[in-house]
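Ticket #4471: structure output looks truncated?

Reporter: J.K.
Steps to reproduce: submitted the chain below (619 residues) through the standard prediction queue, then opened the result file.
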Amino acid sequence: MYVHSVKLVNYKSIGDYAESEVIIEPRVTAIIGKNESGKSNILDGLSRIKFTDRNSDAFGTSIINRIGTTGKENFYQILLKPCPEDVAVGIDGETEIIITKNEYAATGGVISYFRSCIYPHIEEIASILGAVTANPMQLKDQELTNYRTYYGELLNTEEMDIPRRTAAFTFFVNRVSKLSAEKRSAFEEALFEAQKKWQQLTCRFPMFFYRKTDKHLKAVYKYEDVEKELKSPGSYSDSMLSDFVRLLGVTHDDFLLAARSGVVSTQNTVRNRIRRNVESKINEPFSHFYHTEPVFLEIEFNNGSVIFQIRTGDGESLSISERSNGLRWYMETFIDSQSNGVAQSNVIYLLDEPGTSLHVNAQKELLNLFSHLADKGNQVVYTTHSPYMLDTEKDGIHRIRAVVKDTQGYTHIYKTAYDNKISPDSVHDTLAPIVSALGMNMNDTFGPAKDKINIVTEGTSDYIYLCMMAKLLGIDAEKYAIIPSQGASNCVNICAILHGWGCRYIAVFDYDKAGVESGAEVMRDQLIYDLNRDYCFMNEVTQEEIDSQTYKTAKFMVEDVITREEINRFCEEKDISSKLNKALIAKKISNAIDMGEFTLGETAINNFRVLFDRILSYV
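Returned output as attached by the reporter:
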């Protein structure tokens, strides 16, 4: 399962309103906003969620929103969606989980799975144990109270407390011997089957991993530095030596012995064991984690120093400081996550401003590494101030969440970075909210490109479909930049700005009343722009047809390019309403195509191929 959305209620600077929900993409999500807007609070809130364990750190007076009404607790409302692998085993619906300080309630897909796959075994257990009020194990006091609580939890088919239900299975497994001999065998068999299927369910829940800072493995550690850091790792927040030692599974004393000057046999024994552990616990699993090229971390001990090198393929070993920042980041993230018991897939990586100290090309390389993490079945959520950490060409602006703090100090999370509520002073300029949320100036390079064709779309759904199809058709991303607008009149405003900036552009309108009268005709009559040079439509029309107002009886929109039939087919296959918001349907189709869960027909693909050929030929 993957996390679709989390509503953080009354958490730190986040209150209780519609914009307390963060929508998380199936692959990579960027969060942008000015300093002190609450971006880190979002990651911190997400990191406190545990699906299969209790987490007392998720609640407490220090993290409750102090601006709101006194006495209100914080809580989390999470929506998970099934992956194809989940559907294959019977988890075919969305799961909603609400976690408060005293309650945990999961409903939806996991309950349906429990009823169909696990509850039949629970019924066998119930027939053996009898009523909840009975005491077949002859327990006393608190044990008897726990027995009845856990037994009642297993029988609940309306909602489930996952940590408590896990504890219930453990409780009964540990007390099998307390049943009478004639009941024990049947009880143990039914309990084993139920617990096995329960574990198959719980292992499908993702895990949040929060990497707050870019800790590094230094190229060289002197013995005295090793001694100080292992004694007080919290004092060295930028170094991950203690994480490395913990991952290797060796004691601090053994590592210090290896690091000390000398070549006695005991030292050689420990050093060889450390090298073997580096191979088995880092290099071997890293080869399954990173497929770009073979990478080997090497450790050497020389004259009271610990030296780290990296070798790629059959190449020579180089100091870790000489390797690319991207490769180092990936290796260090791997060591950090593995030392904290994180699996290699089904992880939600929370990264707070990664790569802040990296140069532009290294920041762009991180985006490729995020994509690689997503390919492994993970989700990535990161915050940034850098325009180079936003892949607007490949992933699109709709994968960016904008965060703004209002005058009262409340953090608001917007589903899109081009929501006009973000910047009331700039509602007619779609680009301004993005720039404002990034804390940048208009002079910064973002969005529009002077060396590309800027394709300005009339609406969000147009933008999503064009981004999706440009990627699907393999159109050279160096040729174009797609910019979304909110309405035909805003599309005109953006083109006017681009014209003033000396950028090449073309507006693409729907062939309907709004697209013609509020968009194209305004550009022609007021700005003296030309049809099929400065602007065009989703279909090929002439000025004579426009003057004849054929758009009133023969409308043609982006939904007609992808075809209504394809949209209806998608909605039927995915069992969703075709009456949903157009942009939401476009986003669902785009996500499904991206994840290989839906394939467009040749007619739709060819329609977009023709559309792009026209657009690019006009400019």
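Triage note (M.O.): checked the attachment and the full token line is present. Residues 423-446 have pLDDT under 50 and may be disordered.
Status: closed, working as intended.
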